[in-house]
Design goal:
There is one protein chain. The protein has an eight-stranded mixed β-sheet with strand order 13-12-11-10-14-19-23-24. The chain has a seven-stranded parallel β-sheet with strand order 4-3-2-1-5-7-9. The chain folds into two domains: 3-183, Glutaconate Coenzyme A-transferase (3-Layer(aba) Sandwich), CATH 3.40.1080; 200-439, Glutaconate Coenzyme A-transferase (3-Layer(aba) Sandwich), CATH 3.40.1080.20. The chain is globular and about 80 Å long. The protein contains 15 helices and 24 strands. The mean pLDDT is 95. Strand 10, helix 8 (225-236) and strand 11 form a beta-alpha-beta unit. It has 448 residues and is of the alpha/beta class.
Amino acid sequence: MSAGFEKEYRQKLISADKAVDLVSDGMLIDYGWSVTATQAFDKAFAARIEDFKGLTIRSAMLLRAPEIFKAKNPADHFTYVSWHMSGICRKTIDAGFGFFSPIRYSEINRYYLEGPNKADIAVFQVAPMDSKGYFNFGPVNSHLKDMAKVAGKVILEVNEKMPYCFGKYDENLHISEVDFVIEGKDNDLIPELASSPVSDVDKKVAEQIVAQIPNGACVQIGVGGMSSAVAVLMAESDLKDLGVHTELYVDGFVEMAKNGKINGLKKSVDNGKQVYAFAAGTTGLYEYLDGNPSCQSSPVNYTNDVRVISSIDNFVSINAAVDIDLFGQVNAESAGRRHISGAGGQLDFVLGAYLSNGGKSFICLPSSFKDKQGNVNSRIRATLAEGSVVTDTRQNTQYLVTEYGMANLKGLTTWQRAEAIINLAHPDFREELVKEAEALKIWRRSNK
């Protein structure tokens, strides 16, 4: 680093313990998004968390449980708020101190810039400062720049193990924009997101989707076993000249790129670049992104902008669902009243892909599941369970895929939709679904 910036860096250097001194009761503290969540500050904060009351801690997609979650009675000291629940975040709801903040992920930058809930302190991990005085956000661009703009105090926690990720814009923060710097010398590697295991059902669904993807398509893939299966099949296929424009960058894209399937040369926007808002996966994924100029982290209000997505020809969006009803309403966020994740950018990609010239949007799910008692239940329901969240409205759903087939729901009447969807259900539930469709007045005697 240059002498000038090194001096400013040293002036702003602070220990994690001293950083905790900046906290006072009632504050709102942004704790980082996904792999940028703080480590050193968190450990120091956890040691004193019982000294505070009325705090709000905000983050999302945590892949490692913060130390403050291990407090004896967390709810006595803070409320945790998540923009998107991972499995770790979800446990805070069950424990009584966590809550979900519903968002359309593409709008989160605006929520920070215009919303009422600006953080008193924003603290998160970054890569070491470069010679020009910039700290790189690593694999998370998303909204971090805008989060820092409006925070009362900005504390950066340097992790030498954080990969350096090139970006379209807003992938860095300058030392002049920072209040304090913590050197996380003992920080661990950034946490991994393990790939979901791929089942035979996942493979059957993936085979149908991959058959619909043309050479030169630009792809967005969500997280989960089915998404992993699609990526594996694409990596092993004869497809070529694929592009990437996605919210979450996962290991499947790395395998596709290493197998020569991805070059982005057919993209009319960001030609040759793999564009993403944030990345989470194995250490191999982080190593692939580190200093890779073909990969481009970008703000989520760019990656998930329906106008940007729709401007890319042959855009293919692949996302999973928890369940779907006979009207075509998609729930990807809850199991009835039990919250699971969040909307993320699913609706944005569903809308954008359909508007794209030659684009296709796929919602995939297994037709059934086993509950804790071993009973088989249908994921295709007459109506969504009480408390379920509608992630994609019925008029937005295009292709629906299960292991029993694929149906394009666009332009179908209610009874045509019911028939098409029931044909994708597990055979054991089809007769009952027909009876329920009759009761809902969306079944014709002429139907199969």
